[in-house]
Amino acid sequence: MAKNNPGDILTSDWNPVVGCLRYSAGCRDCWWLDGIMPWQKRLGNLPATVVEGAATEIEARFDPAKLRPKKGIVGVVQHGDLFWDKIPDATIARVLDVVDQIAHEREEKNARLPAGRLPDTTKYVIWTKRAERMANFMEHRYPQGVPAYLACGVSVENQALADERLPHLLRVQGYRFVMIEPMLGPIDLSQYADVHWVVLGSETGTDRVRPMNLDWARQVRDLTKAHNLPFFLKQVGSSHKHPVRTLDGRTWDEFPEGFAK
Ligand code: SF4
Fold first, then answer.
1. Does the CB atom of residue 18 touch ligand 1 within 6 A?
2. Statement: the pTM of the whole predicted model exceeds 0.90
3. pLDDT digit of tens for each residue in the chain (261 aa)?
């Protein structure tokens, strides 16, 4: 469970639509396509039609009752990329309709809480490599700004991809975060520091892992500290089973204010 994995920023996830196609350097050993998808198919939790390059809506998972009990920090569409061009706009809207519905229910419940009871501050997070589509979609759907219960992230692996994608992230009016995983090269974020959170992790899992230089991670960490940004370091080593989570003698498990697993 993500909640019990200190290297995971999520408490849980919700995947009413699944699917993706390898897109950039970080996708080479995609954990969903190469790991979770075949495993979940073997368990019978996914239909046989779920394959790389196909988008599949899993009807039962759209039931708001599936999302309602999930609390803390909930990843929305982790099994694929919600803004992949094979996912129709109508499907993205349907996913966000459920998120909005449950978030509004929580807000109403919080408003009725007796004095002294802590409100439910569940956050929903989405991250994508298709930054331009996400920024366009969010701008259109939430012209007054993305609600505070929803955080938008963009995933980048190296400087060229950061320069291509992060200008679009900065167009999102709302919580913005940068997800650097797997980190495959140095990244200077100084032009993109107007965000609310930076998450970073090395590649893990296979015998052909591309190692991360610790100085690349230090450069990002130092930039976040210079700008007073929360920094979450998932891991720096290559092992998924035995993650190395310290950098310069300590862990970096920082969340934006109001986010809690
Ligand atoms: S964008 Fe994400 S889900 Fe899609 S292939 Fe790449 S790593 Fe996998």
1. no
2. yes
3. 577 799 999 999 999 999 999 999 999 999 999 999 999 999 999 998 899 999 999 999 999 999 999 999 999 999 999 999 999 999 999 999 999 999 999 999 999 999 999 999 999 999 999 999 999 999 999 999 999 999 999 999 999 999 999 999 999 999 999 999 999 999 999 999 999 999 999 999 878 999 999 999 999 999 999 999 999 999 999 998 899 999 999 999 999 999 999
Range of the structural domain that residue 186 is part of: 2-235
Look up tokens 């920023």; give the residue: 9
Q: Whose CA is nearest to atom 8 of ligand 1?
A: 30
**CATH number of the CATH domain containing 198:** 3.20.20
Beta carbon of 22 within 6 Å of any ligand 1 atom: yes
Ligand 1 nearest-atom number relative to CA 22: 5
CA distances from 74 to 70, 122, 188, 250 (A): 7, 7, 28, 26
Indicate whether residue 80 lines ligand 1 (CB < 6 A). Answer: yes
55 lines ligand 1 (CB under 6 A): no
Q: How many domains does the chain have?
A: 1
Nearest to 19 by CA among 3, 4, 41: 41
Tell me whether residue 255 is in a domain: no
Q: Which atom of ligand 1 is nearest to the CA of 20?
A: 4
Residue 249, classified by CB atoms within 10 Å of its CB into exposed (0-12), middle (13-18) or buried (19+), is: exposed
